[in-house]
Amino acid sequence: MDLYSLSDRGIQAELGARIRALRLRKNVTQIALAEATTLSLNVIKSLESGRGKLSTLIAVLRELGALEQLNSFIPELSISPLQLARMQGRHRERASGKRLKDKSKDRPEW
Amino acid sequence: MDLYSLSDRGIQAELGARIRALRLRKNVTQIALAEATTLSLNVIKSLESGRGKLSTLIAVLRELGALEQLNSFIPELSISPLQLARMQGRHRERASGKRLKDKSKDRPEW
DNA sequence: TATTAACAGCCTATTAATAGGCTCTAGATA
DNA sequence: TATCTAGAGCCTATTAATAGGCTGTTAATA
């Protein structure tokens, strides 16, 4: 499936549906999942409809034994040789902005 | 890295750091990302510190061109043969609960 | 097929995320 | 190394998520 063809709302719905499928595959009730995660039943319902906080997602994935998937989600990045060259091996802590011209070196207009 | 060895808070921090790394690899500023996603600067900051909503994560991943990774995140599940047998091919819409004994079939106490 | 528990959907109160603003620090650059 | 801007950190107001509770519907089971 190409996620880029979905709206953000559509992606959220898809995520919720997959988490629900994960839960049902293990034959776990929403109530049992709520108790195991110490979250409320409403939060489990919300998550399965695609809403909620990151912390909720993580707690539920842990309980369902699906945390490994986070690794492929946002992988630790390997730096490409091209970028290594650009950055001279240093890693960037800030993005570089467009710097305004240094006006102190301008010739006065008059 | 084994995410199960991390606390939920730790995982959130790791996620935020990876998103930040993704952004910096593209040399995009937080302000530019905020504008592109029509989210506030504070929300971008929060996300990179591991907090926020699922909708925020999705919007940012889309902007950074990292949405494909969601597919490996929560994969569409393939049903195992064992489960197919148990479910007789039907897919479960609810988890099965422990059903209390049907008292109508009990012998009266007196 | 009758039963019953899983779940959706709704409500109210509380807590956390978000928007928008400001100041201060320090990383990247000229 | 001096400059400039990316980003942290803090503030206030608004909006969304969460906790807890209740009712009605129906999938799964006996």
Q: What are the salient characteristics of this protein?
A:
homodimer, about 110 residues, mainly alpha, 434 Repressor (Amino-terminal Domain), disordered C terminus, DNA-binding
What does this structure look like?
Two copies of one chain form a homodimer. Chain A has helices at residues 8-25, 30-37, 41-48, 54-63, 69-73, 81-87. In chain A, helix 2 (30-37) crosses helix 3 (41-48). In chain A, 51% of the residues lie in helices and 0% in strands. With 110 residues, chain A is mainly alpha-helical. Chain A has a domain at 3-63: lambda repressor-like DNA-binding domains (434 Repressor (Amino-terminal Domain), Orthogonal Bundle), CATH 1.10.260.40. Chain A has six helices and no strands. The interface between A and B is large, with 50 and 51 residues. The structure holds a DNA duplex (30 and 30 nucleotides).
How far do the termini of chain A sit from each other?
64 Å
| Overall pLDDT metric of chain A | 82
Biggest interface, chains and residues, is: A-B, 50 and 51 residues
CATH topology of the domain at 3-63 in chain A: 434 Repressor (Amino-terminal Domain)
CATH class of the domain at 3-63 in chain A: Mainly Alpha
Count of DSSP H/I helices of chain A = 6
Secondary-structure element series of chain A: HHHHHH
Low-confidence stretches of chain A: 102-110
What summary fits the major beta sheet of chain A? none
- Taken as a percent bin, the fraction of beta residues of chain A is under 5%
Shape of chain A: elongated
- State the CATH superfamily name of the domain at 3-63 in chain A: lambda repressor-like DNA-binding domains
> How would you classify the helix and strand content of chain A by structural class?
mainly alpha
Determine the oligomeric state from the structure: homodimer
**CATH level-two architecture of the domain at 3-63 in chain A:** Orthogonal Bundle
Q: How helical, in percent, are the residues of chain A? A: 40-55%
Number of strands of chain A: 0
Query: Rg of chain A to the nearest angstrom?
Result: 23 Å
